[in-house]
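Lab notes, practical 5.
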Amino acid sequence: MYHLYISVMVITGLDLSAQNKTITGTVRDAVTLQPVISNSISLLGSTRGTTGNSDGKFILAIPSYIAPSGRIAVSSLGYASDTIQISSSKNHFDILLRPMAGALGDVVVTGVSKATLIRENPVPVSVVSTKKIEQSAENNIIDVFAKNVPGLNAVKTGPNISKPFIRGLGYNRVLTLYDGVRQEGQQWGDEHGLEVDAFNIEKGEVIKGPSSLIYGSDAMAGVVSLLPAMPQHTDKKVRGKYFSEHQTNNGLYGNGLRLTYGGSSWSMALRGSYRIAKNYTNSIDGRVYNTGFRETNASASIKHINDKGSSVLNFTIYDNLQGVPDGSRDSLTRKFTKQIFEGNADDVTNRPVVNQQELNSYKLAFCINTSNTIDYTQIIIIN
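Output from the prediction step:
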């Protein structure tokens, strides 16, 4: 019985080994003799098949009842398909595929400039470049845009407060964006301007016309989009840019500094500015009392880019001390007077006259503080 059991196992093993035939092969380009990757090998008359590796090599198991007379089909994208007769005495095949001219159609990539897209856009979009911003001597960024964009006006309620108006509509009918983030401070009241550092803006775009479908109800008249300066270079070098301005009408002095660093994955920007102005002058009143301002700003941006997307962290501080003129005058000399008491103790008709030294001073008599802090993270994921 023991010998019979061994004989049955040997016969069974021989029978199982005879059921399948394993063939191997390499698929190459008939012209260059380079391996053809992503080739497909299928056994005709059955559902068996396999694919080649990065070296063009494949392995395929074939049932014994097909092996003597079977054929395999070899195909790959961009090559003419071929069939190979299986031989019982051969287990390895070197297959050459002939390239097919015109197997893949030409891929045409068409690019248009941003200026072309703007011309084709039914909603008028005006771009304010870096050069235009740096060449405009204005008190704030809205005044700069109003000077360079037809159809955009600035309504001023103070020496450094300007609100954007597009075709007669302003406040919560004009949406203002800073790097894509809504800035709603200028919508609150007459004494609230746009809380953005002018030295920090590299360029901007103004959409004139209803844009509520894209931006929401605040964009009924249009959108003013402000884009801060970010490094465009990736050479891992620190670059700096210094700004300075002076205006004679109100004695304004402004200084700003921008430092940027750009690498392949990380980019950073550090910015700061300080602006101070005294009372401005007009042709009728001379120096107008308490129209000076003092503005201090700082901001930082960090951006990280990888294969999956990008993340941006922005932090800004905007601090603006703004003089508030009330226009009170002496009834006889018509010179400006100043308030020194509060409430019922204040008598407008008996206020003291402002002397010339106070009119020429950078000191703010009484003021309001317009400040804003932004700290947000913007994450863009690319699938």
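Observations recorded by the TA: The first helix runs from residue 2 to 17. The two ends are 67 Å apart (CA to CA).
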